[in-house]
Design brief:
With about 625 residues, this protein is an alpha/beta fold. Helices cover about 35% and strands about 20% of the residues. The protein binds fructose -6-phosphate.
Length: about 625
């Protein structure tokens, strides 16, 4: 959460920084600001979007021109409301140090008290502002320090998480960055350097990046950079080549990133399986876990930890791994796992799933599992992300950058990865070669079936128009479609702000049935699998209470058309494959309902793409 971008080089900093902010806006969008150094510091910051900031800059543009070093920030508020004064960058009282920050300074209250007692005055309600005054204080206490030294010393007093970037007119040619918990990437250009929370603002300038590790600091000038730990120990850093194109983080003719990403799914599904599904050999080859496969197969138990949509993918993973590989699986919210002293040992495998690879709770769960001696495996989308780097082994989802805040293509990619994993864990143990081959054939047919579902977009849009003013929605599914019901409800609530609940259909009569009346749309995922007849009974129960039924059913199912008010027909597939298909109409339905309601689907209120705070 919060987007950080910094630049130092030969070019005009302000337009580069603004462009960078636009690419990072999915990380936070309640206020934005920029500071450049041109002799003195010039700062423009305000509540609102990056677009609003640009408008403000048109008035003050003169002040910012000519500077070749600067920092900029787009905020997701934690401490202090979204407002002009709480927007970053924050300045020290003398106005000669500017700082942007992503994360939470946990001991900010104590630091604030102490700094106040030394005469510092605060202009914001943020935890961040204490940092800039602290740096100032360290520098004043020891004037022989440089900016790097002052930051380093200040960080010794700080508890919590930070990704930060500091400039000062006292040392105009230096940008100092530091990271603990919140991600930072350094982009290495030709005589210029970029710093950002992720690679999105960097890729159009350079493909060469260095990922800062936790507890590391970089000092960047136009001539070069050094990376040391906060304790001042030199560290060797690998230069990594970015593996995505600029076009992948642009809308490509779609109205929203979310829609583009929903429509990308057939291609993404191909990409996830490419080189891994060996149809001719009837097996999967999973390079990232190959060396650990035997240990994974011998796991006493697998625990999957994740948050949000990734947690829903994890639930499907549980069904898949237990069905095929017959290894007991538990799925835990990462935030619960990390704090509940779980029973995990050396013969357990913990799989963490994260699109961003930066989610604070998932990262903490990973570290807790490692500490307890479990083999920790990651399933991540963002290459080089912290979770990807800290897990012993893992698999990338190869879904490409996901910019829309609501996760769509990352989810289907995660499910395919889990499917392939389940088959790899089954090999030679629980299911026959022929069964594996059969499942792989089914998997390779999914992209084409997904493409057929996307052709239903206009039908789904017209259903969305009918229900756009509903106050509540219920999503029901059984078996493999139960996690999809949860995911459908999450998609709707996060982007349309309609209250929605997902339930296993059989649970309906244990409570939620009380909600059903003529104003309650109920979405049934009623595909033809072993629970089909049961779900028909559930539909009858809703109908007899006048609930309005929308069904996702398989092609050719006549029976359901007499029961449901609307039916979205999708291609037939086996039960385990079904979530990959049934989720797509629910993504589209949420998208269209949200756009009919005038919501900003790519940047829903209160949310941010990468949840790097607890
Ligand atoms: C929902 C959504 C979130 C994320 C969750 C975990 O659409 O995007 O629920 O799934 O914040 O994020 P990652 O997968 O990046 O760890």
């Amino acid at each position: 959460m919060c987007g950080i971008v910094g630049y130092i080089g030969k070019r005009e900093a302000a337009p580069l920084l603004l462009n960078g902010l636009r690419r990072l806006e999915y990380r936070g969008y309640d206020s934005a600001g920029i500071a450049v150094l041109n002799g003195a510091l010039s700062v423009v910051k305000q509540k609102g979007s990056v677009g609003d900031l640009e408008n403000a800059l048109q008035e003050s543009g003169e002040r910012l021109s000519g500077a070749t070093i600067g920092i900029a920030h787009t905020r997701w508020a934690t401490h202090g409301d979204p407002s002009d004064r709480n927007a970053h960058p924050h300045l020290n009282n003398a106005g000669d140090i500017a700082l942007i920050h992503n994360g939470i300074i946990e001991n900010h209250a104590a630091l604030r008290l102490e700094l106040s007692s030394h005469g510092y005055t605060f202009n914001s309600a943020t935890d961040t502002e204490v940092l800039v005054h602290l740096i100032d204080r360290m520098w004043k206490d020891e004037p022989s320090l440089n900016l790097e030294g002052a930051v380093r010393r200040a960080l010794r007093h700080v508890e919590g998480a930070y990704g930060l970037c500091v400039i000062s007119s006292r040392e105009p040619g230096t940008l100092v960055v530091a990271r603990k918990g919140s991600p930072l990437v350094l982009g290495l250009g030709d005589g210029e350097y970029f710093v950002a929370s992720d690679a999105a603002p960097i890729v159009e300038h350079t493909r060469k990046v260095v990922y800062l590790g936790d507890g590391e600091m970089a000092v960047v000038t136009a001539e070069g950079y050094t990376v040391k730990t906060v304790e001042n120990i030199e560290t060797e850093k690998l230069i990594t080549e970015l593996d995505f194109e600029l076009g992948e983080i642009e809308k490509g003719g779609f109205e929203h990133f979310m829609l583009k990403e929903i429509f990308e799914q057939p291609d993404v599904m191909h990409d996830v399986m490419r080189g891994r599904v060996r149809l001719e050999e009837g097996r999967v080859r999973l390079g990232g876990i190959e060396d650990y496969l035997d240990r994974l197969k011998q796991a006493r138990r697998i625990v999957i930890c994740a948050c949000g949509t990734s947690w829903h993918a994890g639930l499907i993973g549980e069904y898949l791994i237990e069905e095929f590989a017959r290894i007991p699986v538990e799925v835990d919210y990462a935030s619960e796992f990390r704090y509940r002293n779980p029973i995990v040992g050396t013969d357990d495998v913990v799989i963490v799933i994260s699109q961003s690879g930066e989610t604070a709770d998932t990262l903490a769960a990973l570290r807790a599992a490692k500490e307890k001696g479990a083999l920790v495996m990651g399933i991540c989308n963002v290459v080089g992300s912290t979770i990807a780097r800290e897990t012993l082994c893992g698999m990338y989802t190869h879904a490409g950058p996901e910019v829309g805040v609501a996760s769509t293509k990352a989810f289907t990619a995660q499910v395919i990865v889990l499917y392939m994993l389940a088959l790899a864990l089954s090999k030679g143990r629980t299911i026959s070669h022929d069964e594996i081959a059969l499942n792989l054939r089914e998997l390779t047919r999914v992209p084409e079936k997904a493409a057929r579902i996307l052709e239903l977009d206009s039908q789904i849009k017209s259903i969305a128009e009918i229900f756009k003013d509903a106050k509540n929605f219920l999503y029901l599914g059984r078996g493999y479609n139960f996690p999809v019901a949860l995911e459908g409800a999450l998609k709707l609530k996060e982007i349309s702000y309609i209250h929605a609940e997902g339930y296993p259909a059989a649970e309906m009569k244990h409570g939620p049935i009380a909600l059903i009346d003529e104003d309650m749309p109920v979405i049934f995922i009623a595909t033809r699998d072993s629970t089909y007849t049961k779900i028909l009974s559930n539909i009858e129960e809703v109908r007899s209470r006048k609930g309005r039924v929308i069904a996702i059913a398989n092609d050719g199912d006549q029976e359901i058309s007499s029961l449901a008010e609307h039916v979205i027909y999708i291609p037939q597939a086996t039960g385990p494959i079904m979530p990959l298909l049934t989720v797509i109409p629910l993504q589209l339905l949420a998208y269209h309902i949200a756009t009919f309601r005038g919501c900003n689907v790519d940047r829903p209120r209160n949310l941010a793409k990468s949840v790097t705070v607890e």
